[in-house]
UniProtKB/TrEMBL annotation:
It comes from Paraburkholderia hospita. Keywords: 2Fe-2S, Iron, Iron-sulfur, Metal-binding, Oxidoreductase. PROSITE patterns: 2FE2S_FER_1, 2FE2S_FER_2. The keyword Hydrolase does not apply. InterPro entries: 2Fe-2S-bd, 2Fe-2S-bd_dom_sf, 2Fe-2S_ferredoxin-like_sf, 2Fe-2S_ferredoxin-type, 2Fe2S_fd_BS, Beta-grasp_dom_sf, Diverse_Oxidoreductases. One of its GO terms (molecular function) is metal ion binding. This is 2Fe-2S ferredoxin.
């Protein structure tokens, strides 16, 4: 038995300590917003925050998460992650999504990116490109970086700043 702290709630799971966080979330807790993609930490579909850092849950065992806070994409839709909720709203407003499968990764990675910026600093498109590299190629196959323009992400970042003055 292990205790996981997910989106501000404590959960007891009966899985082996080497079970990837992804499977504890999806199979045991029924939280299916975090997706399985490649199983090798390459695609990012399984990204969650572990104490605020974007990590790949498909290769990270629950043992590593003991005593730490896991934040999933569900926190961006239920409002428990204020920054994530703003990013999610901007994603919808500016039609950033393409097929949708990797959107949970993109939103959770963008949220970690925004939270990593110095307090009071407005994000720029250059920051977005830097953030993309810093967070394991956040959207390497996604619309916002595949197209010649990064306008949708820039709009998302601008909306974030406009809607909220909360410190990242």
């Amino acid at each position: 038995m292990s205790t996981l702290h997910v989106n501000g709630h404590e959960h007891t799971v009966d899985v082996a300590p080497d079970t990837p966080i992804l499977w504890a979330l999806r199979d045991t807790l029924g939280m299916t917003g975090t997706k399985f993609g490649c199983g090798a930490a390459l695609c990012g579909a399984c990204t969650v925050h572990l104490d605020g850092q974007a990590i790949r849950s498909c290769v990270t065992p629950i043992l590593v998460a003991q005593g730490k806070q896991i934040t999933t994409t569900e926190a961006t839709t239920d409002g428990s992650d204020k920054v994530g909720a703003i990013v999610h709203a901007a994603w919808v407003k500016y039609d950033v999504a393409q097929c949708g499968y990797c959107q949970s990764d993109q939103i959770i990675s963008a949220t970690a990116f925004l939270k990593s910026l110095p307090r009071g600093r407005q994000p720029t498109v250059v920051d977005a490109e830097t953030g993309r590299a810093r967070f394991h190629e956040i959207s390497s196959s996604a619309y916002v970086f595949q197209q010649s323009s990064v306008a949708p992400l820039a709009n998302t970042l601008r909306l974030y700043v406009q809607i909220s003055k909360i410190a990242p």
